[in-house]
Specification:
heterodimer, A: alpha/beta, Rossmann fold, 3-stranded antiparallel sheet, B: 82% helix, globular
Chain lengths: 278, 268
């Protein structure tokens, strides 16, 4: 079903970008236009909840501005890894370094649920993302700019309850983007959306990543989403990184291309064979 | 969306007026039926005086100033008692909702006290305070305390923990988290408490005034009973109904003003 959808939809580049990106590009140049992201170094990371050891020693280096997808079966520890990077859980052992001078506003998380304040209008929900700059004079202007970026400028004075699921998630994205984060962590942000909305959200994520050049970490259970968006796919099994796969396909990526489908198939077979062994 | 907005705007002006009429159809019809029944003698005047007689009694009391004075006294007692009991209930609700320690310390005690019907305390309260103002205020405050306490506590406890986590991630201080997330999230539940409390407020006050008072609506009704003035008794009962309706409408207006974000309040 998803494959059929993907191939039937024409790939449309966002307007205004066609001249911006050179046509003949090689994999190495698939970086964002300017890199604002932070490099991420993880060493010997361990985390347990009670007797259950969720992460059993993760070593990982993510260069600044890379788009990394983390896939794995549910309960493999992929969300825990993301929550540790975002500082939402305490580390048991090991370290996570995000370079020097990292501030709270530099790291943002987007969840599966939009988590908008129902009693705040769309614009003030976006302003929440400014962190300590919430009270500054240009808060309104910055929030409006972020809303425009996700294409919802006309919804600024609406209550969240009147928005569709995809629109709410776009507001949540605007809220995450408004502080110009240098690391953006996505915890299954598209998991609750329908197939068509998912695809347009994937394009939006890719576009803002290329525009802003943050380091992106996407946790997903959807392997085709991972290979469509990421530079690199990490497969986590039983609390360890089992596979580290580079995706060198050129951007914008033609979803359903032989290259991506082949990669998706091999990652899926890894995941499934792990399933057979247990 | 903008099209729907532009349509619903004029309609939202028309609907409340229509609603305002619709809700009064039944009470007015009952009064009309009652008048007819009294005039034709179906209902003997000794059992229930005609609405016109009740209105006449009201007019006389209004002219003598007695009606306004008694309503004012009752209204004053109700409001002060409500404010005292409501504030204490709200404060305990906040404290126990936000602090585990406070909840462990006081919640069990409060739950025990809650199960004592507060009107059962009337004899004790009369012994303590006599038939003084403080007796009535004490009873109203006690009656109002529990619905507001329980609903504030419930409201705060049930604020979506995902929103609280979101607030923390986005660097909200404790004060900001309370102001932007916890309090607005608890507000619908607090309003439920307020509307319950308003009902209990009138009930408590009227019972207290009927038993031990020298002024107020309950006293007026009891005095009228002594002198067999059935029209004044019925008048008092109708005034309770109107005051109760007034209190409820006030809380509704407040609710709509503060909960306009809530889908349940957006339709009108």
């Amino acid at each position: 079903m998803q494959t059929a959808l993907r191939t039937s939809l024409p790939e449309i580049e966002p307007a205004g970008r066609a001249n911006f990106v050179p046509h003949a590009r090689v994999a190495r140049e698939e970086r964002p236009v300017h890199v604002s992201g932070l490099p991420l170094g993880i060493r010997g990371l361990r985390k347990s909840f009670g007797d259950n050891e969720v992460l059993r020693g993760i070593d990982l280096h993510i260069p600044a501005g890379q788009f990394v997808a983390i896939v794995g079966k549910s309960g493999c520890g992929k969300s825990t890894l993301l929550r540790l990077v975002a500082g939402l859980e305490k580390i048991d052992a090991g370290s996570i370094s995000l370079g020097d001078e990292v501030q709270a506003e530099d790291i943002r998380v987007m969840f599966q649920e939009p988590r908008l304040l129902p009693w705040a209008r769309v614009l003030s929900n976006v302003e929440v993302g400014l962190g300590r700059d919430r009270a500054s004079d240009d808060a309104h202007a910055r929030a409006e700019e972020a809303l425009t970026e996700v294409g919802l400028a006309d919804k600024r004075d609406q209550w969240p309850s009147v928005l569709s699921g995809g629109q709410k998630q776009r507001v949540a994205l605007a809220r995450a983007l408004v502080s110009r984060p240098r690391v953006l962590a996505f915890d299954e942000p598209l998991g609750a959306l329908d197939a068509l909305t998912r695809i347009s959200m994937q394009r939006l994520l890719e576009r803002v990543w290329r525009d802003q050049g943050f380091t992106a970490i996407l946790v997903t259970h959807d392997v085709s989403e991972a290979v469509a968006l990421a530079d690199r796919v990490l497969v986590i099994e039983e609390g360890r990184i089992a596979h580290d796969v580079l995706v060198n396909a050129a951007r914008p990526r033609a979803r359903g291309s032989v290259e991506l489908t082949g990669l998706e198939g091999s990652i899926l077979s890894h995941l499934l064979s792990a399933d057979d062994r247990t | 969306m903008s099209l729907i907005d532009s349509i619903s705007l004029p309609r939202s002006f028309r609907l409340p007026r229509l609603d305002g009429l619709v809700q009064w159809i039944v009470p007015i019809a009952i009064i009309a039926l009652w008048q007819v029944a009294s005039v034709t003698g179906v209902v003997p005047v000794r059992v229930l005086p005609a609405p016109s007689d009740v209105a006449l009694a009201g007019w006389k009391l209004l002219l003598s100033g007695e009606l306004v004075r008694n309503i004012w006294v009752s209204f004053w007692r109700a409001s002060i008692g409500f404010l005292i009991g409501g504030s204490i209930g709200f404060a305990f609700g906040l404290a126990n909702g936000l602090s585990q320690l406070s909840a462990k310390l006081t919640d069990t005690t409060l739950q025990m006290v809650r199960n004592v019907p507060h009107l059962a305390l009337i004899p004790l309260v009369i012994l303590w305070f006599g038939i003084d103002e403080s007796a009535k205020l004490f009873l109203v405050a006690l009656g109002v305390f529990f619905p507001i306490y329980l609903n504030t506590l419930h409201g705060i406890r049930t604020v979506d923990p995902q929103l609280i986590e979101m607030g923390r991630i986005y660097g909200m201080s404790d004060g900001e988290l309370f102001r932007r997330v916890i309090f607005p999230g608890a507000l619908p539940s607090i309003f439920v408490g307020i509307r319950f409390a308003l009902g209990i407020m009138w009930l408590t006050l009227i019972v207290a005034e009927t038993i031990a008072a020298s002024s107020g609506l309950g006293y007026m009704a009891m005095q009228a009973r002594e002198f067999m003035l059935i029209d004044v008794v019925v008048l008092s009962i109708l005034i309770y109904a109107l005051l109760g309706k007034l209190a409820d409408s006030t809380s509704r207006v407040l609710e709509r003003a503060t909960l306009s974000w809530h889908p349940a309040f957006q339709k009108r």
